[in-house]
Design a protein that fits this description.
By secondary structure, this protein is mainly alpha-helical. The protein contains 5 helices and 3 strands. A 3-stranded antiparallel beta sheet has the order 1-3-2.
């Protein structure tokens, strides 16, 4: 699975159900590319797409049980990889990273929030 497909799956799993337009903005993908990715994930049984009852032009996506399981597995592998890498750092370097976490979290939130 490509990094972009993984990112889309993880975003839908975390934020879903989510409108396709919101997902495109969150992933910084054009609607055509996102549609292809979502279609592939739907075909794999990892996402489900539903029409918006109030706006037939809009659609919602949500992770299926298989999608949620795969997302949990991916997050676990990433956590294990980060923990293994952190073990190779000195106590001083781990402390530097720990002190930087609030700033990194604020940066992540700022990047996630659409600018107007």
């Amino acid at each position: 699975m490509t990094p972009t497909r993984i990112s889309v799956l993880l975003t839908v799993n975390r934020d879903g159900p989510i409108r396709l337009s919101e997902l495109a903005a969150a992933e910084s993908l054009n609607p055509t590319m996102l549609s292809r990715i979502v279609s592939g994930l739907v075909e794999q049984g990892l996402l489900e797409r539903n029409s918006d009852a109030d706006d037939r032009r809009a659609a919602w996506v949500n992770a299926t049980l298989a999608g949620r399981r795969l997302a949990k597995h991916i997050r676990g592998e990433r956590t294990d990889a980060i923990n293994a890498a952190l073990e190779g750092l000195s106590v001083e370097h781990r402390g530097c990273l720990e002190r930087a976490l609030p700033a990194l979290e604020a940066l992540s939130e700022q990047l996630r929030t659409p600018t107007r």
